[in-house]
Amino acid sequence: GSIDTAEGPRNGDAHELSGASNVAAAYEDVNPYLLAMPASPHLAARAEGVTIAPERIVRAYERLAARSDVIIVEGAGGWYAPISATGTMADIAQKMYERLAPSGFPLSILLVVGMRLGCLNHALLTCEAIRARGLPFAGWIANKLQAEMPLVRENIDTLTSRFGAPPVAVVPAGVGASGMGPPSWAMQAVDSLVSL
């Protein structure tokens, strides 16, 4: 989805990430595709007559990598979210990794787990799919989607045991873009990732 800004339509997350970055970058490198409809990438692209070209996204990543020490890449829709009739977000991550790993700027995958009923199965399947591609699994974030999820601590403990590591951050329920700068949990997560 998109929001209206002084610079024109922008993706809200990309706009926030750009504002928090200490590297000036072209918006088109931060967000190579702006699709207005908040839907699976392939459906939003089809509705707008857009073809998502993975190479365009990979080239933007390369340009950012040439100017940065650390890049946080946010996928859209999930690991296997379709981007076309045959491609997925996982294919884009694979291309990014293959392109830049030899240059010493590898892509590591950080899994954000929406804490809700069914999250254990979903998270374990996603982690297995990441590892099956031979991509580095950097860790995970527990994203509390509701203030009172039954057995949330037990779910986090189960994933900690299965992943072999605690979450790099636990995002409290109700946290959203505030325009007040990154909250402490986000800074702790970034610090944890940079030290990997």
Structure description:
This protein is α/β, with parallel strands linked by helices and 196 residues long. It has a domain of 89 residues: P-loop containing nucleotide triphosphate hydrolases (Rossmann fold, 3-Layer(aba) Sandwich), CATH 3.40.50.300. Helices cover 42% and strands 12% of the residues. It has 8 helices and 5 strands, in the order E-E-H-H-H-H-H-E-H-E-H-E-H. 20% of the residues are buried.
User: How many beta strands in the DSSP annotation?
Assistant: 5
Highest CATH level, the class of the domain at 108-196: Alpha Beta
Write the H/E string, N to C: EEHHHHHEHEHEH
What would you give as the CATH superfamily of the domain at 108-196?
A: P-loop containing nucleotide triphosphate hydrolases
The tally of helices reads 8
Shape annotation: globular
Instruction: Enumerate the strands of the largest sheet in spatial order, edge to edge or round the barrel.
Output: 3-4-5
Give the structural class. Answer: alpha/beta
Q: Which fold does the CATH topology of the domain at 108-196 refer to? A: Rossmann fold
For the termini, the CA-CA separation is 32 Å
In short:
The chain has 196 residues and is α/β, with parallel strands linked by helices. The chain contains eight helices and five strands; from the N terminus they run E-E-H-H-H-H-H-E-H-E-H-E-H.
Defining traits:
two-stranded antiparallel sheet, about 200 residues, three-stranded parallel beta sheet, Rossmann fold, globular, single chain, alpha/beta, about 10% strand
